[in-house]
Automatic annotation (TrEMBL):
<protein>
    <recommendedName>
        <fullName>Bleomycin resistance protein</fullName>
    </recommendedName>
</protein>
<dbReference type="InterPro" id="IPR000335">
    <property type="entry name" value="Bleomycin-R"/>
</dbReference>
<comment type="similarity">
    <text>Belongs to the bleomycin resistance protein family.</text>
</comment>
<keyword id="KW-0456">Lyase</keyword>
<dbReference type="GO" id="GO:0016829">
    <property type="term" value="F:lyase activity"/>
</dbReference>
<keyword id="KW-0560">Oxidoreductase</keyword>
<dbReference type="GO" id="GO:0051213">
    <property type="term" value="F:dioxygenase activity"/>
</dbReference>
<keyword id="KW-0223">Dioxygenase</keyword>
<feature type="domain" description="VOC">
    <location>
        <begin position="8"/>
        <end position="119"/>
    </location>
</feature>
<dbReference type="GO" id="GO:0046677">
    <property type="term" value="P:response to antibiotic"/>
</dbReference>
<dbReference type="InterPro" id="IPR004360">
    <property type="entry name" value="Glyas_Fos-R_dOase_dom"/>
</dbReference>
<dbReference type="InterPro" id="IPR037523">
    <property type="entry name" value="VOC_core"/>
</dbReference>
<dbReference type="Pfam" id="PF00903">
    <property type="entry name" value="Glyoxalase"/>
</dbReference>
<dbReference type="InterPro" id="IPR029068">
    <property type="entry name" value="Glyas_Bleomycin-R_OHBP_Dase"/>
</dbReference>
<keyword id="KW-0046">Antibiotic resistance</keyword>
Length: 123
């Protein structure tokens, strides 16, 4: 059995998706996430290193437009470089914000906002 130090508590966003298959394709093919098995028609789990995001099938196409998650850490600059090289659509500039975090964001095909950030000294 794992100890708490070996299995720390973490937060995992669960975002809405009107088309789970299209969501899977975007995260896998454009952002380099792996798909966690088993695949289901109404639920999706993608993972990339320690980043894990879940998606649930929603018939309300407006929900993703008001949903988001924040991904933070020292790996963020490398992710930005990779996403730039992949020419990920809707990739924002990577800049220091007034709250002293260097950030960029991406909107997935349905509108979910992924914000990525790190302290400027981590760059």
């Amino acid at each position: 059995m794992a100890t708490p130090a070996e299995d720390p508590a973490r937060s995992i966003p669960i975002l809405p998706s009107p088309d789970v298959e299209a969501t899977r394709d975007f995260y896998r093919d454009e952002l380099g996430f792996g798909v966690v098995e088993p695949e289901m028609d109404d639920y999706l789990i993608v993972r990339r290193g320690d980043i894990e995001i879940h998606f649930w099938k929603s018939d309300d196409r407006k929900l993703p437009e008001v949903s988001s998650c924040y991904i933070r850490g020292g790996e963020v600059p490398a992710l930005y470089a990779e996403f730039s090289a992949r020419r990920v659509r809707q990739l924002s500039p990577f800049t220091v914000r007034p709250w002293n975090m260097k950030e960029f964001h991406i909107r997935d095909p349905h509108g979910n906002l992924l914000k990525f950030g790190c302290a400027p000294e981590e760059v």
